[in-house]
Amino acid sequence: MNYLRRRLSDSTFISNLPNGYMTDLQRPDPSPPPPAAPAKSPTAGPTPPATSPNPERKAQPAQSSGAGFFSSITNVVKQTAASAGLVEQTTVTTPKKFKILLVIDEPQQEWAKLFRGKKVQGDYDIKVEQAEFNEINIVAHANGTCNVDMQVLRNGTKVVRSFKPDFVLIRQHAFSMTQNEDFRNLIIGLQYGGIPSINSLESIYNLCDKPWAFAQLISTYKKLGAEKFPLIEQTFYPNYKEMVTMPTFPVVVKIGHAHSGIGKVKVDNHSKFQDIASVVALTQTYTTTEPLIDSKYDIRIQKIDNDYKVYMRTSISGNWKTNTGSAMLEQVAMTDRYKLWVDTCSEIFGGLDICAVKAIHGKDGKDYITEVVGSSMPLVGEHQAEDRQLIADMVLVKMNQLAEKPPANPPQRPTTIQPSQNGGAKDLVAELTTKPGAGRPPQGWHNSKPQVQTEAAPQAQGEPSAQPQSETPFQNPVKAWSHEGQPPVEQESTEEKTRAHPQLNKSQSLSSAFGLKETSFFRTASEDVAKAETIRNLRKSFASLFSD
User: Fold this and answer.
1) Burial of 204 from C-beta contacts in 10 A (0-12 / 13-18 / 19+)
2) Considering Cα of 336, then 339, then 345, then 350, what sign does the dihedral take?
3) Hey, is 3 helix, strand or coil?
């Protein structure tokens, strides 16, 4: 202790210390204030001798300097141990204050305004990232993480971001027959990363091809019948080679029947149908045919959560394509018939939160259901702002429901353990895992007390007689049943191994002294006792050191 005092009082030792070490000792001592001169009274006698200052005030700086000395030593020890990796450094992580909502839609629709001021579970703000399919890239991992890279142009400025979405709202078609408009790989990436969405990613992927969705409508038609669910007749040709059977004319041929298909042509006779078949051969895609309906108006029934609206569109230009030219759109009353259609179609592919059913009302007074559309349906009519608010409210409800659910713990991967080089141990483990009925006592082993055998297991031929301690993965005794119904064979205990390897005691003492984590899978009572004894010895050593 005297050596430490002399060493620390040396000015050269203090000056050579790095910055930040023992700052209390490097700080210069404050200069004492000048003593105040006592005022002389004219009537007073001789001035009394100056009294010494308060002893308690003198002891206070000494006490603070001593506390600063020990605190400096403590900080140096902590910093050195942390830099050497002997002590775990606790990292302070700030909690996540927002949830990221990815909206895939055209930039004309500003969804960020609808979620401004909204919160999830009252704690998390909603940060909206909006882009189109052609502006994002996705990288997903099997552990459930999904990174989205976004490059968008906002007011002439290129904005590049990378984030992990917590929810996704898809308001754009994921597949189109137009060149470079197939974004189904991005839907797969979101599904791979496990990102929740509206509608579900499974339904969005299944609705990419309209004939695939029409096949689901066929099953509904067979279940409800033609009266309740009047589905239009349709024929599917996978390629041009099958377009040899002649339908009833006139027909409408849809080439590549997806969103923004390659073409839609009205065919009146057989010769034109053969000409269309040659065109389909160039496109190398599928084709559907439907009978031409002399329509009076089109019907569109949409459902957003529990809100229903029906619109009627009447062509003014007189074109057989009612979606081209001039048309008049008006909202009509909701009927039970229309509600049955949309409710039934919303149950396909696991459920559709946002969907619309399109139908044609012919001049013959009959209705014909043509297709179903998912969350990518365009909003029409005078209530588009109200419909967007309904979608935003539904997204907020879904995000709150997901936040209430406890996070599912991912399954733990099995730990690969290298087997021991001991041939006898390998035979015992193989017997336990391969023998039928392993783990059960053999016949005749009922209530008799097991006797521990001290025989070592037979060694494999060609193996060394002694194995190093580091190659033994387990330190606990391993027991196994023998073929003759004898008691289990116990391997060499940990205490005997410790006595045989004195170097192991030193490593255990060092790990116990510095509080290192256990690297083995099992801990024995002898290790805990050794650890406690080492700590007590260290305390006695420090007490004797500083007691001088």
Assistant:
1) buried
2) negative
3) helix
Q: What amino acid is encoded at 409 in this protein?
A: N
Is pTM beyond 0.70 here?
A: no
**In angstroms, rounded to a whole number, what is the distance separating the alpha carbons of residues 198 and 395?**
7
Assess contact for 276 and 270: CB atoms under 8 A.
no
Indicate the residue type of 203. S
What confidence tens digit (pLDDT) does each residue in 192-244 have? 999 999 999 999 999 998 999 999 999 999 999 999 999 999 999 999 888 88
The residue assigned the tokens 């229309």 is 338
Buried-state track 110-132, b at ≥16 Cβ within 10 A, e below 16: ebeebbeebebeeebebbbbbbe
Packing angle between helix 336-345 and helix 210-224, nearest 10 degrees? 130
Taking the CA of residue 4 as centre, how many other CA atoms within 13 Å lie in the half-sphere pointing to its CB?
8
- Backbone φ and ψ for 7, nearest 5 degrees, come out as -70, -45
* Sign of the alpha-carbon dihedral angle for 512, 515, 516, 518: positive
Please work out, in degrees rounded to the nearest 5, the angle formed at the alpha carbon of residue 314 by the alpha carbons of 310 and 315. 145
- For the stretch 279-332, pLDDT in tens is 888 888 899 999 999 999 999 999 999 999 999 999 888 777 777 778 899 999
Q: What tokens appear for 23 in the block?
A: 């700052």
